[in-house]
C-alpha cells in the first residue's frame, strides 16, 4: 500500500492549497473525505462477504463430516440390531412379554374446578389491599369520577 507519512501529507496539503486555492479547499476536502469513507465502507463490505463465504464453506465441510459420522453410527446400529435379532430368534425366549397387570394405570380424568379460567395469583388479597394494588379494573368514567377533586363549599 501507499506509505503516507506526515511529511508527505503536509506536502500534498501545500500543493492542494496552491493549486485549488483557499476558497475551494474546504469543499474539496469534504468531498474527498466522503469519497474515502464510501471506499472504506465498500472495502469493509467486500471483506465481510468474503469472510461469510469462507465461514459457509467451513460449515458445509463440518456438516458433511457430521453426516458421515451419523451414517457410520446408523450402520453400526443396524448391524448390531440384526445380530441381536438373530440371537433372539435362536434363543426363542419370551422373557420380555408380561401380563396386563405390569402396565402403569393412570388415574381417570377429572373435570377442572368451576372457575378454571380465572387466573389464581400467588399474592394473597390481604397483601394487595394493604399495599394498594388495584385488583379490579375501572372504566374511564369511573376512574375520572373517583379521582376528581372534591368541591369545597
Please sum up the structure shown.
With 153 residues, the chain is an all-alpha fold.
Report on this structure:
The protein is an all-alpha fold and 153 residues long. The chain has a domain at 6-88. 63% of the residues lie in helices and 0% in strands. It contains four helices and no strands. The protein starts with 5 loop residues before the first helix and ends in a 6-residue tail after the last helix. The model has no long low-confidence stretch (mean pLDDT 82).
- Cα distance, first to last residue? 88 Å
Name the beta content range.
Answer: under 5%
Tell me the major beta sheet: none
Please provide the ordered H/E string of secondary-structure elements.
Answer: HHHH
Shape: flat
CA-atom Rg in angstroms: 40 Å
Unreliable segments of 5+ consecutive residues:
none
Instruction: Give the helix level as a range of percent.
Output: 55-70%
Mean pLDDT value: 82
Task: Please render the helix and strand layout as text.
Blueprint: H1 6-20, H2 25-91, H3 125-131, H4 140-147
Keywords: Cell inner membrane, Cell membrane, Membrane, Protein transport, Translocation, Transmembrane, Transmembrane helix, Transport
Protein name: Sec-independent protein translocase protein TatB
Pfam families: TatA_B_E (PF02416)
Amino acid at each position: 500500500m501507499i506509505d503516507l507519512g506526515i511529511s508527505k501529507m503536509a506536502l500534498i496539503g501545500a500543493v492542494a492549497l496552491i493549486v485549488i486555492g483557499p476558497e475551494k479547499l474546504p469543499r474539496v476536502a469534504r468531498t474527498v473525505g466522503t469519497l474515502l469513507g464510501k471506499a472504506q465502507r465498500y472495502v469493509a463490505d467486500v471483506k465481510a462477504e468474503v469472510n461469510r463465504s469462507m465461514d459457509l464453506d467451513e460449515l458445509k465441510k463440518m456438516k458433511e463430516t457430521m453426516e458421515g459420522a451419523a451414517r457410520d453410527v446408523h450402520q453400526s446400529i443396524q448391524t448390531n440390531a440384526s445380530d441381536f435379532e438373530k440371537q433372539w430368534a435362536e434363543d426363542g425366549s419370551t422373557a420380555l412379554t408380561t401380563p396386563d397387570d405390569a402396565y402403569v394405570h393412570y388415574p381417570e380424568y377429572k373435570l377442572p374446578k368451576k372457575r378454571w379460567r380465572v387466573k389464581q395469583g400467588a399474592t394473597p388479597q390481604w397483601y394487595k389491599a394493604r399495599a394498594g394494588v388495584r385488583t379490579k379494573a375501572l372504566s374511564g368514567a369511573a376512574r375520572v369520577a373517583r379521582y376528581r377533586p372534591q368541591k369545597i363549599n
